[in-house]
Task: structure prediction
Amino acid sequence: SLVRAKCFHTLDAFVRLIALLVKHSGDQQNTITKVNLLNKVLGIVAGVLLIDHEVRRKEFQQVPYHRIFIMLYLELNAPDQILENINFQVLTAYCNMLNILRPSKAPGFAYAWLEIVSHRVFIGRILSLTQGQKGWPMYSQLLTALFKFLSPFLRNAELAKPVQKLYRGTLRVLLVLLHDFPEFLCDYHYGFCDVIPPNCIQMRNLILSAFPRSMRLPDPFTPNLKVDMLPEISIAPRMVTNFASMIKPNFKKDLDSYLKNRTPVSFLSELRTNLQVSNDPGMRYNISMINALVMYVGTQAIQYIRGKNLSPSMSSIAHSSHMDIFQNLAVDMDTEGRYLFLNCIANQLRYPNSHTHYFSCLLLYLFGEANTEAIQEQITRVLLERLIVNRPHPWGLLITFIELIKNPTFKFWSHEFVQCAPEIQKLFESVAKSCMVASQPRIDQPEGQSTD
Result:
């Protein structure tokens, strides 16, 4: 429109002026003056935006602010010797500004915020052109802020149209990252899964399906695939999250003591209480604590098995203090807690690595050793609900499910929950036949709906 064109003309002139001031302030080699000026300008514009957002509320217009931020970023990333010296400082300034204006602070700016965060020049600079992956932690912080904002809506499946658009935009960003920067998703999967609600199956699958570009995934449907013979299966994946620090110090002290010599004896009986935070259904447990506990005990178990010159298998993972903890969680937890616990395990079923191998064996062992069919049914649910949503599906998830339905030891097809209704049995057979049919990932349907 004419008004928009006139508005953009004025804003672009303002942006050009700021870019020239930043470029030429101070000496050519004096980057501090330039960066200080940029920080001051971004701070002022962000401050005005927040006041405007607070005053106007529903009448707030995000377009002019988006135009200022994105055009200024493009101006400051133009090929220029002076500007190239401050590229990383510009990136840091923008990440700080985007963190201040995150969707939870300025919901009316959320669409424009996501457009900036997902802009090809911004993603390219922060994830690819910045040396030593120095931009990766900053970008993960921005994505985490986005997931945290979406979390309450997704947890209650309250997707009004504006939130649905933001959700779909987020899925598209994840698809771009999965295609162009899979290593980034591999490294930060733990932190992302920690803040994504358990019912967001498709969003989590997109993150967990990432694998390093240098790796060629073996076909999970290869007859007699020997997972333990794959060269990558003994290599630990890179972890950037310090999950051990998320466990409360007193609890961790008892945990380490139990793992080492199975004392104190009261540790297992008090385990559920230590993970519980309230009595409200759906909010009973500290999910971050369960995630950290599962990950910590699992990695300790891998070290323990490797220390005996063995590799994870149904026999080598059994009868240890680590397995005592996992079996206690499977048996002692109520339905809600057990579902969260099993989800934590399923989050580690990714590309071929030592974590995928151990947690796949763990899930199958818990299924085989379960003392009630309710536990087996819940394990099946956790695997199945991740397979009936739109592709992609993580490699580790597929090999675990295939082993479960093919290996006669588990007697999968004879369980009552598989045969409880004809439509359920058909669903199992359909997934068993078609979960690996090649297909492009699609995100046309809402979260949790099957493509079948």
User: Anything to note?
Assistant: Residues 435-452 have pLDDT under 50 and may be disordered.
